[in-house]
Structure formats: C-alpha cells, structure tokens
Amino acid sequence: MKNFYVLFVLAIACPVALGVEKFCNEQDFENDDLMCCNSIVTPRPFGPKNQHKCCGNVSFRKDLQMCCNGVVTRPIIGRNADHRCCDNVGFDSRTHECCNGVVSLRPGGKKAAHKCCGNVAFNNKVRMCCNGAIVYRPQTGALWHHTCCGQQPFNIMTHICRKKTIYQRAPEPLKLKMKRVRLN
C-alpha cells in the first residue's frame, strides 16, 4: 500500500518522472498522443507506438507509409522491405522501377537486365535505348556488338554508321590459315 501511495503522489506531482510528459524544444507534451518531430510537437498517428516515425516535422506509421525525401507517402498495402523511394513517391521494387524520378512498370525478364530509357523501364536483353527511343536489338551478334546510329540500332560487326545512316560493311577478304606440317 505504501508503494502505491508513493507512486500515486509521484504521478500527480511529477508526471515527467513516469515518462508521461516529454519536452520538445522546451515545450512539454504528453507522449501518449503527441511526439516531437524536428523540434515540433505533432500528433501521433493511430496504431502501435513502435511503428511511429518522423518525416521532417510530420509523424507517420512506418509499417504503412514511407518517408521519401521529406514527404510522407500515401498508405502502401502490404508494406515490406521491397518498397523503395522514387523522388518523393513510394513504390514496390518487385513490380516497378524508378526511372529518372518517375515510377515505371517493370518489364519482363530478369531484374539485372532492366534499364531505363528516359522515364521508361525496358529489358536490355531484348531492346535498347537509342537517343531516348526504346527499340528492338538487332537479331544478330552479341549484345556488346549492338549500338545506335541516331535512333536506329545496328550491329557494329556487320554495319557502320555515317551521319546517322547505316551502311552494310564491305566483306573482308578471306584470310587463309596456314597449317604447319612436319616433313619427315
């Protein structure tokens, strides 16, 4: 009973000692409903306190939202570790790609082959970016043999580019291979 009485007196006389009140920029506030974000007292979001975070001077729930460049994103259903920021927008990196600050639908194929052309994601194994245009790769040659001539793709082993025009390479003369033969 004596311990209860001491606790009761402490709660009335000194709420800071019990952690009920906190200070934010020399302003006291109740920790249950409010939190301190960037020295500004702000209302806590609903839900468990261990999910509350600050984004600049605004509070949010980290299990439902993200803080992207100081902006709280809209609620994300099924928020998980695959969610990323693209400028100030949250997105799921399993299904989308961030291309120059714009969220773009992820193309098919392996993630390692995904590249951006301007604001659009594409599969680099099948297509390529030629001066801002996504075009199909040439049918022949290894990927490193493909390059652009203006907005047209070509294979550097079979063609050349001059003044944004593609020309077929002249055939190389046949090279004869000589084989050393040992005479007895």
UniProtKB/TrEMBL annotation:
Pfam families assigned: Galaxin_repeat
InterPro entries cross-referenced by the UniProt entry: Galaxin-like (IPR055284), Galaxin_dom (IPR056601)
Keyword Transcription: no
Start and end residues of each Galaxin-like repeats domain: 23-162
The keyword Signal belongs to this UniProt entry's keyword annotation: yes
Residues spanning the signal sequence: 1-19
Highest taxon listed in the record's lineage: Eukaryota
This protein's UniProt keywords: Signal
PANTHER family: GALAXIN-LIKE (PTHR34490:SF1), PROTEIN CBG12054-RELATED (PTHR34490)
Official protein name in the record: Galaxin-like repeats domain-containing protein
Organism of origin: Capitella teleta
